[in-house]
Fold:
Amino acid sequence: MPIRPLDEWAAARTQSLPLSALKGAVVGIDASHYIKQHLLHPSTREPLLVALGGFPFALRNNIERELLLLKDSGVTVIFVFDGLDFGTKNQRPHVSPESVRAFEQAWDLYDQQQADQVVDAFSGAGTPRPESLYRFLQRILHHNDIDYIVAPYSAAAQVS
Structure:
């Protein structure tokens, strides 16, 4: 949950620097946040993902391109994944009623063979939770020799 006054204060003081400013640095990346940003970005958002499941095709290419760019720039990255969700009594994932309705409507359109509307409907049905894509991201990181750790509980403590 964002802290609005802090976000406003920080937004007014942000500045952009070239990636070369991080040359030789080790950067910790929260895997959940990283995946979520990619799932919501227009270039990697796949509207049928909630219907088909699995790992988004465009996401793999974008992640590998970013990893190569960081490596070529001399930046070392370590991804940090959340560990146990300690203290949660309800282990069932929460799904909003709006998302359920949108998902049902999308399947109804599919049954009616309205292809263009199906894509839009599934796009509005939501995105998968980042945790459901952890294994896929870990495979990409392993394949590209990028280090990652799994925090005991929240990744936030490990990244900070």
Remarks:
- The chain is about 50% helix and 10% strand.
- The chain has one domain: 24-84+95-159.
- The two ends are 17 Å apart (CA to CA).
